[in-house]
Design brief:
heterodimer, A: mainly alpha, 72% helix, globular, B: mainly beta, Rossmann fold, Beta-galactosidase, Chain A, domain 5, 3 domains, 9-stranded antiparallel sheet
Chain lengths: 286, 690
């Protein structure tokens, strides 16, 4: 018999998460596909926008920060190096911020589904990360193209460790997505807080500058002891690690990734447990 | 069958919404710290029941009684606060059709996505994809984005997906009230198929008619409590009587009759038995491509007493209010329908349906009667039993044997173009329906702003067959003139002739028509209201609605098998008539004709005959026209010497009207015939048979 049995206690059990997700994998991919298709369907240039958006952003940021504010990359100092450095930070950050903010609102945006049909609720925040992931892949290709075009070289062999760093970032994103989405269903304040934090995070994360720049400014004032606080933001360590791998061809130090890893696992556990607990009654709150 | 849904003593409590009150105010953190309990209410309380596999269960109750919450719990969308629900099988919920449909995706993409949400694999969808498309009737639009669909198409494709996902349990919430009639029928048929396949169906609606026809058992909820779980008819009966505090609900009593108006549906009970199953008495209008049913309106009672009530149902979308006046008398229910439009509105159709149980086997409409055909299990559409005729005053239905009571429907008031007929419903509904419908081809029906009277029906119950037969006899005696074996019955401007109970006339029967201002004015379009009797002579007066005149028909028996007709024109002011005639439309068994000058045979009527066809050639003045045929008594239409110069014409009607015509026509050589104000005889003649 292919029928499935469910009882009311089902959705809240953490141990059923993995089987539930395996069962719903097709739905997960369908929803991701849906997002991708509708995102670009009526745009004349279609997918091109996924490329153009980060490029334009990079051009603007490079112009503003490297010409107007005179921030220089440590890689070589030229505007071309600055541009690529900014692009790496930007693509990584955009994946993070887009994924977290769309996951946070995903349950509310998909209210009509959640309040009408029974399926593992995790599918919704997870699928909402999909579009950000597609943009990330396009961005990654863009980085490689610009890297070789502007710097006239290719990244070293340490590039193979990029997926490891990404795994940490991905775990963090999923954890935050689950955590925020379920709480946002309950208290809409969460959504606003996430938006504000992302805005703050854009400046507090080394995107258009590098950590060395922060250290320099702190040292100027004699506050260099505060420098580790900068790395409380796990995205600081993650983006710095990407740059180490791509530009210096060196493995990032354990110090740099230890905290982000702890954060990622912690947030994931918290997110999964919170979400599972609230899942059965989510539809009452939407 | 083991239970497929087990609902074990569940309670569902909702907390008051927090939102801005989370920090301050009632139910907020401040109160929580102070130990004040937050607001909560029980949407459902201690509900306990099982649903067996293959059962179809209806859930009824007024708004806010917890129906939808219960359905959501079964769907697993949310969980009970206390108690458990076990569901053994895959559930397809039609809680809202097209959940997850995205307007920018094509029909095909949405079908796959939606089916995926309902738990189907792509391979399974592919297997039924063609059936889904066919059922929905979307055709090539399936490749178009759904935001180009009409709302009807949207619903159709959404229902099709849900109906073909092959779940074990179907949850249906009010979805059958969407789409056009044809599609609703298809939905019902599909639901019927699913029931036959042994699927379990849980159905929520406040349309008792649909619940009645689809469900075997019903759960009645009121304010979150399960009041009753019983067979459908008992539960509906109970619902109608007990949940009586609704603002659109009122019960009338008189003698053995009890009438309940419940939000746009009227149910009549006779000696505690419901006379009006399924949708009861209902009224609907077709407006802007959609049916609007009286049960969709927002009802309230504006006047109530034990024997009379006035209910007002507002269709907010149409800016129109239905006003029902219901009066309960000894053995009679009088139901009047008026429409109050805020602005001049054009409707496409009006339809009134009186549903009666299948136990009624014989119908009477006008002079005719017959038995209803059996409703077959594969009947998914309504079948017309009698062709829609211009309204005549009475219709009745008789039960078989001694079961049940004869029911008579008198049409007291109606609009001139309304037509009535008896209809068999589809198998699911299983009803005999008396339908009154007004539809003017492709033209719309314009109603002015303000109140328009549409209809007034009197439903009369006869306690026995005898009293019914006696009533029929008396009623027709008032309008009937008998001479030997010839019987002439006057029926609103038509004279129906029969000889030894054999109908001689057909269609328009014997009627008269005046040609004024290039318009033919038929006698049956007059307002026949007055009736007098002078010995054996009957006098009927009909006022014209268009021109300032009335016709007075005097009908009296003459020597054996003959009826004398004297027709007068009462001109209220000077009137000019171009020509006029008095005609008999005869059964097609009449094969030969003759006039004073010639004779011939009636040719067969062929489908090509769109118009009436003249058969004779000499139109000189004459005094009689006759027709005869095998098995038919010879019939003579003779004019008196003092009747204005008549010429006899013989015609065949159009194929559609299917009759022979013997006509006395008066047509001036030049110009018009002027009638000054006053009364003038204009036709005087005899109809003789044999």
């Amino acid at each position: 018999m292919n029928s499935l049995v469910y009882t009311d206690a089902h959705q809240s059990q953490v141990r059923r998460l993995i089987p539930d997700l395996i069962r719903s994998r097709q739905l997960l991919f369908d929803l991701v596909w849906k997002d991708i298709r509708i995102r670009y369907r009526y745009a004349l240039m279609g997918f091109l926008w996924a490329v153009l958006e980060p490029l334009i952003m990079m051009a603007v940021l490079t112009f503003v920060f490297s010409f107007v504010f005179q921030i220089r990359s440590t890689v070589g100092g030229g505007p071309r190096e600055t541009a690529v450095t900014i692009l790496v930070g930007l693509i990584a950050w955009q994946f993070f911020s887009n994924a977290v903010s769309s996951a946070t609102n995903s349950l509310i945006d998909n209210r009509s589904l959640v309040t009408k049909v029974n399926f593992p609720r995790e599918v919704i925040p997870l699928s909402s990360v999909g579009i950000a992931f597609v943009n990330l892949i396009i961005g990654g290709i863009l980085i490689l193209v610009l890297y070789s075009a502007l710097l006239l070289k290719i990244p070293g062999q340490m590039i193979v460790f990029v997926p490891v760093v990404f795994a940490i970032q991905f775990t963090l994103v999923i954890g935050l997505g689950l955590l925020f989405s379920c709480w946002n269903a309950r208290f809409r304040d969460v959504g606003y807080m996430v938006n504000a934090s992302i805005l703050f995070g854009f400046y507090a994360t080394p995107i258009f500058y590098e950590p060395a720049f922060v250290l320099e400014r702190l040292t100027d004032r004699g506050w260099e002891n505060l420098y580790p606080l900068f790395f409380v933001n796990p995205m600081a360590g993650i983006i710095t690690s990407y740059r180490e791998l791509l530009f210096n061809n060196t493995l990032p130090s354990v110090n740099l990734l230890l905290w982000p890893t702890i954060c990622a696992i912690g947030v994931l556990v918290l997110g999964v447990i919170s979400f599972r607990r609230q899942a059965p009654t989510l539809s009452d709150r939407l | 069958m083991p239970p497929i849904i087990e609902v074990q003593n569940i309670t569902k409590t909702f907390q008051a919404r927090t939102g801005t009150r989370v920090l301050l105010g009632k139910g907020g953190i401040k109160d929580k710290l102070a130990g004040v309990k937050s607001d909560s209410f029980n949407a459902l309380e201690n509900i306990d029941f099982n649903v067996d596999g293959g059962e179809s269960l209806g859930i009824i109750g007024s708004n806010g009684s917890g129906k939808s919450t219960l359905l959501k719990l079964i769907a697993g969308v949310t969980v009970p606060t206390e108690g458990t629900i076990n569901v053994y099988g895959r559930v397809a919920s039609l809680l809202e059709l097209g959940a997850g449909f995205h307007p920018m995706l094509t029909g095909r993409e949405n079908v796959f996505l939606n089916a995926g949400i309902l738990g189907m694999r792509h391979k399974q969808v592919e297997a039924v994809f063609d059936e889904i498309v066919e059922f929905s009737g979307i055709g090539k639009f399936i490749e178009q984005p759904v935001d180009t669909y009409s709302s009807g198409m949207y619903v159709r494709i959404a229902f099709a997906v849900a109906a073909y996902t092959n779940p074990d349990i179907f949850l249906i919430d009010e979805v059958l009230s969407v789409g056009d009639e044809e599609f609703q029928r298809r939905c019902r048929r599909r639901i019927g198929e699913l029931m036959e396949q042994g699927k379990t169906i849980v159905f929520v609606s406040h349309d008792l008619g649909i619940v009645n026809s689809l469900c075997e058992r019903v759960i009645l909820l009121s304010q979150g409590k399960m009041i009753l779980r019983d067979t459908t008819s008992k539960a509906i009966d109970f619902y109608l009587r007990q949940i009586g505090d609704d603002k659109g609900l009122h019960t009338l009593h008189c003698g053995d009759l009890e009438t309940i108006q419940c939000n746009g549906r009227i149910s009549i009970f006779y000696k505690q038995e419901e006379l009006t199953p399924a949708s009861g008495l209902q009224f609907q209008v077709f407006y802007m491509g959609q049916w609007h049913n009286s049960i969709d309106a927002d009802w309230e009672m504006s006047e109530r007493s034990d024997t009379r009530c006035v209910a007002r149902g507002n269709w907010s979308k149409l800016q129109t209010t239905i006003v029902w006046t219901i009066e309960n008398k000894e053995n009679k229910v009088i139901w009047s329908v008026d429409l109050e439009c805020e602005n001049p509105t054009s409707f496409e159709q009006f339809e009134t349906n009186v549903h009666l149980p299948q136990e009624y086997v014989q119908w009477i409409y006008d002079d005719e009667s017959g038995t209803f055909p059996e409703i077959q299990t594969d009947d998914t559409a309504w079948q017309v039993v009698t062709s829609p005729e211009l309204i005549c005053e009475n219709a009745a239905a008789l039960p078989s044997g001694d079961e049940g009571v004869p029911l008579q429907i008198n049409i007291e008031k109606h609009r001139p173009n309304a037509r009535g007929c008896w209809v068999n419903s589809d198998f699911m509904t299983g009803c005999r329906i008396f339908q009154i419908r007004e539809q003017l081809g492709h033209e719309s029906i314009e109603l002015p702003a303000g109140t328009t009277e549409l209809l007034s029906l009197e439903l009369e119950v006869h306690d026995s067959r005898d009293s019914f037969d006696q009533m029929l006899g008396e009623k027709s005696a008032r309008h009937t003139v008998q001479s030997g074996d010839l019987r002439a019955r006057f029926d609103r401007g038509r004279l129906r002739l029969s000889f030894k109970d054999q109908q001689l006339t057909a269609g328009l029967h014997g009627y008269a028509s005046l040609f004024i201002n290039n318009l033919w004015n038929d006698s049956l379009n007059l307002r026949w209201e007055s009736y007098e009797e002078e010995g054996a002579k009957k006098r009927f007066t009909g006022e014209s609605r268009r021109f300032p005149y009335a016709l007075i028909w005097e009908i009296a028996p003459a020597e054996d098998n003959a009826v004398k007709m004297n027709l007068y024109l009462e001109a209220h002011e000077d009137i000019q008539i171009q020509e006029f005639h008095t005609s008999l439309l005869l059964d097609t068994n009449y094969a030969e004709w003759s006039t004073d000058h010639e004779s011939g045979t009636f040719p067969e009527l062929t489908p090509e005959a769109q118009d009436w066809q003249h058969l004779n050639h000499q139109y000189d003045q004459g005094i009689s026209g006759t027709a005869s045929g095998e098995g038919q008594p010879k019939i003579y239409l003779t004019v008196d010497q003092d009747s204005p110069d008549a010429r006899f014409t013989i015609l065949n009607t159009s194929y559609h009207e299917n009759a022979r015509v013997v006509q006395a026509l008066t047509t001036p050589e030049h110009g018009v015939i002027s009638f000054p104000k006053g009364r003038h005889p204009y036709f005087s003649g005899v109809i003789r048979v044999g």
